[in-house]
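Structure first, sequence second, as always.
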């Protein structure tokens, strides 16, 4: 009835399932547990299938589909223009490329600030349509009720305090936050509010290392730093920054681990020269 299964089907299916079972999937509880065990958390941004697959195979803990894609993918001057639909699209692509890492999707500007009900709906869409396993939103005391509501509906939330890029106009640009006592105290209060709201972790961006250390010591949830010193429970950077693919601006906290942009440029120049000289395609790269 209906013909026979292809030769080796069951063996290959078994091996595929066995491989999946061998992969230690990173989950929200696993991230929280890293703080208790003292194991550092690693996170990088990803916006497409190829990079997600490469970073996942490298062993990254968290892939953040960041609203930073507005800058490094779309060429915008800030994160503000990116839409929820665009975030869902890129999240889907990242999810297809990973087996192990926890995928967190940024909630873009206006997706959670209008009211709590809209925030809940949009967070749900990032999971239902995008395939994310958690969402990240910016703010502290002012968004605690939103965090509580999203968490209550079963969506894990990562917080983000300090230099919050969606508030750059309020800050007057990308400026380090927390150097004055009033800011210091406000950021500490924001971090405590994020934890009280039920977030499973919090990103600390663009703040003094000493403040980040104080927050990390005072919270039960993990802190993930970006321009916040070494005392955080983990670190995150933008993948295009560490690979030398984005040079529009270069924050002090970014370390270049490769110069892929230069390599890409050289490859393109080599291709152009060979095409113009008529040496590509050669026999090796042609059909008979």
């Amino acid at each position: 009835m209906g013909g026979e299964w292809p030769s080796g089907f069951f063996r290959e299916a078994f091996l595929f399932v066995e491989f999946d079972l061998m992969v230690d999937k990173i989950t929200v509880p696993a991230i929280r547990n890293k703080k208790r065990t003292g194991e550092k958390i690693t996170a990088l941004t990803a916006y497409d299938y190829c990079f997600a697959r490469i970073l996942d195979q490298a062993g990254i803990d968290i892939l953040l589909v960041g609203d930073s894609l507005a800058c490094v993918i779309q060429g915008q001057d800030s994160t503000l223009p990116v839409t929820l639909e665009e975030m869902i699209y890129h999240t889907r692509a990242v999810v297809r490329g990973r087996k192990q890492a926890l995928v967190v999707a940024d909630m873009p500007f206006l997706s959670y600030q209008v009211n709590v009900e809209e925030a809940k709906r949009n967070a749900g869409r990032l999971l239902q349509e995008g395939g994310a396993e958690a969402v990240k939103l910016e703010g502290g005391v002012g968004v605690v009720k939103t965090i509580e509501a999203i968490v209550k509906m079963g969506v894990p939330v990562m917080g983000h305090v300090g230099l919050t890029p969606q508030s750059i106009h309020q800050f007057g640009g990308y400026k380090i936050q927390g150097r004055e006592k009033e800011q210091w105290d406000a950021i500490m209060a924001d971090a405590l509010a994020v934890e009280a709201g039920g977030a499973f972790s919090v990103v600390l961006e663009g703040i003094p290392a000493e403040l980040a250390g104080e927050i990390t010591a005072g919270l039960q949830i993990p802190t993930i730093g970006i321009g916040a010193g070494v005392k955080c429970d983990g670190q995150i950077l933008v993948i295009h920054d560490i690979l030398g693919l984005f040079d529009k601006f270069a924050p002090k906290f970014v370390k270049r681990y490769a110069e892929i942009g230069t390599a890409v440029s050289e490859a393109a120049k080599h291709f152009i020269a060979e095409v113009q000289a008529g040496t590509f395609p050669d026999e090796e790269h042609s059909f008979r």
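Margin note: The radius of gyration is 22 Å.
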